Amino acid sequence: MVYTVTFNPAVDYVIHTDGIIDGSTNRTKREEVYIGGKGINVSLVLAELGITSKTLGFVAGFTGEYIESGLRKKGIQTDFVHLNGGFSRINVKIKSSAETEINGNGPVITENDVNSMFKKLSELKDGDTIVLAGSVPNSLPYDIYERILEILSDRKIRIVVDATKDLLLKSLKYKPFLIKPNKHELGEIFGVTLTSSEEIKTYATKLKDMGAKNVLVSMAGDGALLIDENGNTYFREACKGIVKNSVGAGDSMVAGFIAGFESDDYNYALRMATAAGGATAFSDGLAKKDDIYKLLG
Q1: Per-residue pLDDT tens digits for 123-142
Q2: Distance (Å, rounded) from C-alpha 241 to C-alpha 199?
Q3: Can you give the pLDDT at residue 141?
Q4: Cα separations (Å) of 127 from 49, 268, 289?
Q5: Partner of 38 for a Cys bridge, out of 42, 134, 189, 245, CB 3.0 to 4.6 A?
Q6: Catalytic pick from 12, 113, 162, 251?
Q7: Spatial CA neighbour of 189 closest among 168, 158, 161
Q8: What is the pLDDT of residue 89?
């Protein structure tokens, strides 16, 4: 079973408009509502690729109910901790001449809520995969990733981490199966600006040496680079298409890699990752199965 963890899931309200005038009433051309959150995005794309997953995390209020029911309608299992107060956040994403986002804070999560999630995590078994993705809300302890990985350290579980800087670095001692920084995040970790594939390879290899088994680096229009657990390097050019959407492309790559690795073929896993990421980038929402397989070729 694949488990995805989303600490602060959201309802994403996407509006399209010709322009925004401050201090005036603005009209939309069209609107969409999506269930959002990095781990949830991974589960949604896995479902498109026929992979069963279960979503974990915290939900609250009427938006939490919407998130949970929406995922179940898509065939995704849920096992959220239900909070007593507040409501799951609403993110407003304005698509005009530029993309503007207004993200909500989300509900307060208590230590008792955290312990409830730890209890759910204790059910994971050898052979399962867990995806930890995204930032940590202010109401959660900053070492939450480490605490989760410590709980799971006595089991043979594939750990996937898609997070930035310290969250990612502190996970490396647990030897995650896969980490997925993007080019900018990789440079930020080491305090450098990366301008070539060779430089990216050098610093991705450093992360592998620090504990990661496989390092997948997304490079936007420049493609993706993978250093596998055997030290082999794979490169895949970016898929061709018109970019419409930057939200969820990295999460889609993670889902594609997990689905593609079912064949234990790293080259195929990278191809599936770039196809899934591209299919999301070329869509208004997350990638759909047919679009992924068209790009896979």
Answers
A1: 999 999 999 998 888 888 88
A2: 26
A3: 87
A4: 19, 21, 25
A5: 134
A6: 251
A7: 168
A8: 94
